[in-house]
Design a protein that fits this description.
single chain; 259 residues; three-stranded antiparallel β-sheet
Length: 259
């Protein structure tokens, strides 16, 4: 099974999302994740009628509630540690997840600052049903990210990311590079969206990720990059999380018995 993301973020060219939904239904895709600055109301009825699981990703409790009302089967909430879109409120994952769990009846997934078994167990303890990891899976063998970008991630520390696009109310976390520094400088001088587009557009990010031109555009990446120190396979990432979580459970069980 695989899922498809439908972006609800602003775009320099209209996205044919209705056509995407047609193909998703036709090909019997198992799950869809919607993410962006608006809810999935436009697509939810068709997807639900076709039996597609709908997960809405958001960065505030308010939008989690809206996603539930729109018909989402689950919501992903991401904190300010998250790579890419972070929301404007700068609330951490540790705070966001239990608030969302208390606010909605549907399952909550946690994202932002999670890259190993410790993050998984912490999220489950906060009430989440599972986790979403982006940055960790950029730095795996199967990822199409350029080897230069993967090596960059291995060198990066948790302090090597910055939040850009705050001035246009579209906050995103990215690795600090020449393009990110330029955007921050331009924002401090009142740059408009049109001014920023050459640096924040998708073509620049594509050059970073796929071509290995590390200063060509935004390199969206979470603070968890500071914990990444190898390039395993996807299977190795998952196996580590499972065995690590079981080991943590045993340690916690021991602590409870001793107390």
């Amino acid at each position: 099974p695989f899922g498809v993301n439908i972006s609800l973020f602003p775009s320099t060219r209209p996205l044919p999302n209705n056509d995407f939904v047609d193909v998703i239904i036709q090909e019997k895709v198992a799950a869809v994740e919607t993410s962006g600055v608006r809810g999935p109301e436009e697509f939810a009825p068709r997807l639900k009628q076709a039996g597609v699981i709908l997960i809405h990703k958001c960065a505030t409790v308010k939008h989690a509630i809206a996603g539930e009302k729109a018909g989402a089967d689950a919501v992903t909430v991401v904190g300010v540690e998250n790579g890419g879109a972070t929301g404007m409120d700068d609330v951490t994952t540790m705070v966001m997840v239990p608030l969302a769990v208390d606010a909605v009846k549907i399952p909550v997934l946690a994202g932002g600052g999670i890259g190993d078994a410790r993050g998984l167990v912490a999220a489950l303890a906060l009430g989440a049903e599972g986790v979403v990891m982006g940055t960790r899976f950029m730095a795996v063998k199967e990822s199409p990210v350029h080897p230069k970008a993967k090596e960059w991630m291995l060198r990066a520390r948790e302090t090597d990311t910055v939040i850009v696009e705050r001035s246009i109310r579209n906050t995103h976390r990215a690795l600090r590079n020449k393009a990110a520094e330029k955007v921050l400088e331009m924002e401090s001088k009142g740059a408009t969206l049109q001014d920023l587009l050459p640096y924040i557009g998708g073509q620049g990010a594509h050059k970073v990720y796929i071509d290995g031109d590390l200063d060509a555009g935004m390199a969206y990446c979470g603070e968890i990059v500071g914990q990444i120190n190898d390039i395993p396979t996807c299977k190795e990432v998952i196996d580590r999380m499972v065995t690590g979580a079981l080991a943590i459970r045993e340690r916690l069980d021991k602590i409870c018995k001793e107390s």
